[in-house]
TrEMBL record:
This is NADPH oxidase 2. It is a multi-pass membrane protein. It holds the Pfam family NAD_binding_6. The lineage of its organism: Eukaryota, Metazoa, Chordata, Craniata, Vertebrata. Its cofactor is FAD. One of its GO terms (biological process) is monoatomic ion transmembrane transport. SUPFAM superfamilies: Ferredoxin reductase-like, C-terminal NADP-linked domain (SSF52343), Riboflavin synthase domain-like (SSF63380). Catalytic subunit of the phagocyte NADPH oxidase complex that mediates the transfer of electrons from cytosolic NADPH to O2 to produce the superoxide anion (O2(-)). In the activated complex, electrons are first transferred from NADPH to flavin adenine dinucleotide (FAD) and subsequently transferred via two heme molecules to molecular oxygen, producing superoxide through an outer-sphere reaction.
């Protein structure tokens, strides 16, 4: 028995030592941005830090807890000179970080008053392969949209810098949300991308559909009254929010018809049930002929 135990324990010890070493490296918080509905964006810098799209890090804040490490998806792009995470205040640790950063105070906080942060990572995910395809479907459910903030930012940076050498030509983005509160900070990013694409006369590069899967009677009445307005009443985008859940069979068939003979990457960050649905649709809508359309499914569950 001891032979089977010693190996894994040695590997675990090595991993803890690496994390201890990384936790001693200096991390500087450059900015903390407060978004609506108690969501904060923490922008940081660390010497030698290199990331790819969709990766995640472990974060420790000794002012809150000296032992707890929490995983967060990076929401910045590799092209930016900082790395960032978005933190929704939903528990004791996140509440402690919120207060430690001075977000509970009205006055401006000096940078030297911000707490020390330890960072371990980054660690890779399936989203890194998004640039390997000419066409991709990005599906985020709720807070699972965070990896695609990094993806969409990076794609746009690459497109603006050198569009001719960018293999990725078309993005279909789906975001499923249970309540309107989750739309706030990500809708700002989509508004910026929408405006920039229209300026460059390439509004077809990104097709996005936002689905609200839960609402009450008063909200439904408000949505109906403002449906004819130019911009969506929830997100402020020109693309109107849809209600309910997507008909995935129709979505896959439509995309397959528009891109015959293509390898289409399907990327999900969401629950296991949605992963099973998308995996089945990817298989059933892929053709047996090697020259036909093929959907390649990649998932990241939370």
């Amino acid at each position: 028995t001891w032979k089977w135990v010693v190996g894994p324990m040695f590997l675990y010890l090595c991993e803890r030592l690496v994390r201890l070493w990384r936790s001693q490296q200096k991390v500087v918080i450059t900015k903390v941005v407060i978004h609506p509905f108690k969501t904060i964006e923490v922008q940081m810098m660390k010497k030698g830090f290199k990331m790819e799209v969709g990766q995640y890090i472990f974060v420790k804040c000794p002012a809150v807890s000296k032992l707890e490490w929490h995983p967060f998806t990076l929401t910045s792009a590799p092209e930016e000179d900082y790395f960032s995470i978005h933190v929704r205040i939903v528990g004791d640790w996140t509440e402690g970080l919120f207060n430690a950063c001075g977000c509970d105070k009205q006055e401006f906080q000096e940078a030297w008053k911000l707490p020390k942060i330890a960072v371990d990572g980054p660690f890779g995910t399936a989203s890194e392969d998004v640039f390997s395809y000419e066409t991709v479907m990005l599906v985020g459910a709720g807070i699972g949209v965070t990896p695609f903030a990094s993806v969409l930012k990076s794609v746009w940076y690459k497109y603006c810098h050198d569009a001719t050498n960018l293999k990725l030509k078309k993005i279909y983005f789906y975001w499923l949300c249970r309540d309107t509160h989750a739309f706030e900070w990500f809708a700002d990013l989509l508004q910026s991308l929408e405006a920039q694409m229209q300026e460059r006369n390439n509004a077809e590069f990104l097709s996005y559909n936002i689905y609200l899967t839960g609402w009450d009677e008063s909200q439904a009445t408000h949505f109906v009254m403002h449906h004819e307005e130019e911009k969506d009443v929830i997100t402020g985008l020109k693309q109107k929010t849809l209600y309910g859940r997507p008909n995935w069979e129709n979505e896959f068939k439509t995309i397959a018809g528009q891109h015959p003979g293509s390898r289409i990457g399907v990327f999900l960050c969401g629950p296991e049930g949605l992963a099973d649905t998308l995996n089945k649709q990817s298989i059933s809508n892929s053709e047996a002929d090697p020259r036909g359309v093929h959907f390649i499914f990649n998932k990241e569950n939370f």
